[in-house]
């Protein structure tokens, strides 16, 4: 196993701990145990817990963006917009796990400049993609005369809310309910 693979396995161990027991459970000793290493061995791959958490946060963004890219294919307009939203919304086990981890890390991202920068890059990228898809939909005649920047913010806020509520109140914010909300929102455009 090479250096990068070991870093990924340590990050995955941190993910499992955060998802199962919250961020406070992700101490270096428990991360090392979960990853199958000694506590001291982690220092060869990460400078400390903060670096592991930053890497975990970056990994969530990268994983979501990879899924979006793969799922989009040649889709455009509202079809592409729906795909992007569905890949961000916690509507399956993998996405719910990512939402649980992201929600645990958001408080740190408010004060950690590196994590805040990761969050800004991700949100800016999604805003840009959504705006492109909405402009395509407008050109195709699929939407009315909308303020694209406002609609993008509404969608982004809805998806982030779904991540929080999907984790905290999964019964009320089920996958089916999330998909219904998305479809009603898109239909109103």
Q: Give the overall average pLDDT.
A: 91
Whole-angstrom Rg: 18 Å
Count of individual helical segments: 8
Uncertain segments: none
SSE order? HHHHHHHH
- Tell me the strand percentage band: under 5%
Helical/strand content category: mainly alpha
Work out the helicity level.
Answer: over 70%
**Cα separation of the termini:** 50 Å
Explain what you see.
- Keywords: DNA-binding, Repressor, Transcription, Transcription regulation.
- This is TetR/AcrR family transcriptional regulator.
- This protein is mainly α.
- Helix content is 76%, strand content 0%.
SSE blueprint and pairings:
Blueprint: H1 3-21, H2 28-35, H3 49-72, H4 77-88, H5 93-109, H6 113-140, H7 148-168, H8 175-188
Helix pairs in contact: 1-2, 1-3, 3-4, 3-5, 3-6, 4-6, 4-8, 5-7, 6-7
Task: Summarize the structure in short.
InterPro entries: BetI_C (IPR039538), Homeodomain-like_sf (IPR009057), HTH-type_TetR-like_transc_reg (IPR050109), HTH_TetR (IPR001647), Tet_transcr_reg_TetR-rel_C_sf (IPR036271). Keywords: DNA-binding, Repressor, Transcription, Transcription regulation. The chain is mostly helical.
């Amino acid at each position: 196993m090479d250096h990068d693979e070991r870093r990924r396995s340590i990050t995955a161990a941190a993910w499992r701990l955060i998802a199962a027991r919250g961020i406070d459970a992700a101490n270096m000793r428990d991360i090392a145990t979960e990853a199958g290493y000694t506590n001291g061995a982690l220092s060869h791959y990460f400078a400390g817990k903060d670096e592991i958490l930053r890497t975990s946060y970056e990994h969530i963004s990268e994983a979501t963006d990879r899924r979006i890219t793969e799922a989009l294919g040649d889709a455009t307009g509202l079809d592409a917009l729906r795909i992007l939203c569905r890949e961000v919304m916690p509507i399956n086990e993998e996405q719910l796990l990512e939402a649980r981890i992201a929600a645990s890390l958001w408080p740190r991202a408010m004060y950690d400049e590196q994590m805040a920068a990761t969050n800004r890059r991700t949100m800016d990228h999604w805003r840009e993609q959504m705006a492109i898809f909405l402009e395509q939909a407008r050109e195709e005649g699929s939407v009315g005369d909308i303020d694209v920047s406002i609609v993008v913010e509404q969608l982004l806020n809805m998806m982030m809310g779904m991540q929080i509520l999907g984790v905290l109140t999964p019964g009320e914010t089920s996958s089916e309910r999330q998909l219904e909300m998305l479809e009603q929102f898109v239909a109103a455009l």
